[in-house]
Give the backbone structure.
Amino acid sequence: MCGIVAYIGDKEAKPILIKGLHRLEYRGYDSAGIALINGGLKIYKTKGKVSDLEAKIEGLKLDSTIGVAHTRWATHGEPNSINAHPHHSNSQKLAVIHNGIIENYDVLKKALIERGYQFYSETDTEVLVNLIEDIQKNEQVVLDEAVRIALNQVTGAYAIAVLSEENPNKLIVARKGSPMVIGIGDGEFYVASDATPIVEYTKSVVYLAEEDMAILERGKEIKLKTIKNKEKTPYIEALEMDLTALEKDGYDHFMLKEIFEQPRSIRDSMRGRLNADKGIVSLGGIADYEQKLVNAKRIIIIACGTSWHAGLVGEYLLEDLARIPVEVEYASEFRYRNPIITENDVVIAISQSGETADTLAAIALAKEKGATILGICNVVGSSIARSTDAGSYTHAGPEIGVASTKAFTAQVTLLTLMALRLAQIKGTIPASRWMQLLHELESIPSKIEKTLQSADVIKEIAWQFKDVSNFLYLGRGYNFPVALEGALKLKEISYIHAEGYPAAEMKHGPIALIDNNMPVVFIAPNVGIYDKVVSNIQEVKARNGKVIAIVTEGDEVVRSMVDFVIEIPVTEELFTPLLATIPLQKLAYHMAVMRGCNVDQPRNLAKSVTVE
């Protein structure tokens, strides 16, 4: 959610920090700030965008080789300049930036007030910086020790960077439950909440583990230890990220670029894992757990948002092909309902960022119960990748647009490969049918390229309905999750209220909404229970609803009864989500653009949801 950037070295810090904040804008935020040591500790912050912060500091002489910067997504206190980060201590000699939530901040704040501290913001972060100062002053310890002691007194999640006017050659960073990566240069360090601000400067990084803290001193090697004071040897690894992936490459928005990247991202997710000619499906990351999956009494998929929709498609795939019972759970609800989990269960956690707080909490609960935990995520070195027993990366590449597009189809692709591999091991489908499915899956990227060409009709539909207040999305079987995902994309970026339903459930309530002002999107490829979906379309048309249908190319039956059709190529029913999702992403995109919305950074949303 919030974004952290920090630097210490021999370069000018301000341009590095500001560029880093721009790299992190995709995460979602409502205020921005920067702190530099420049003849004293100087803090500048404002409500709004990074560009507003740039305007505020334009013309100021801010020469400095150490600093921290932050974009804030409001949790404690409204989004304004006072609550924006960085926050300084009462002496104004310490500054802290912080992602996460300090859950016991109120108790700590009352104790600090009794000791004479004053507070000017509504944030939990201001409590933390004053706690560090109070410990440093009263216990007469060095800065990093004061930070360590303070972190043992707080409850909650954090990624922090601490800057001290009295220690201009030192930066202290730490994390628990919120990501933090340190880039290592020549006598310098780059710190960020993810790798996007770092990739331009170095490929050598250290990912902090839970309850790690690092002492970064100018010109010295990184010093790493836990908040329990146990020294650690830093594991320096190569950063796997291409700087060009962070640019728009001529597209108007990152979201549009990422929609069009899906043929490549799906191929990349299959590369080295699928060879249809040789009849090979191999997921190396989970190879040691295949028998555990085959023997599982059930598979529990936990995820949030778009990843939850991918999990629903996975449920259909795994039950249909591999004949293993599957439950799909909202991670945010899973840990609070006392779920029944045994050591015979396999839990699959899905997350684009690998940092979703609710999903990480659900993983921790499932671990306590003895289940085997597998992960599916897109970010190498992320918390989910580190906290699961095994897993697979999607290889979708960086996804900058807040509304997930290519991450969804990459997740579905990986779940498809998993279902096919388990079906092969169990022998639950004939070998000839299995080979047929492998060849068809290999053709999906090319079919998506064809689907992406249907631009004019989607723009026409968007123009026709851009001013409506409500949308209904309906699908059946494999395409019910597609209806949910299509509705989510529309409301995320266009702010139009939209709901997804199983088409047959329309008669049990939503049909009351149908009139000539209600556009209804049907996902209606000519597969599965096609005739039932056609009947549902007729029910909507009988009530003067406006119908937009996603159909198999050449379908004249549905075309004759609806207002608009968008065609997708012929494919197997179980692969239709990979094709049908594409036009729904484009429809949401064009409607949002026509409504003047901020497509890549929709209001109130964050890319990586690192708080509950």
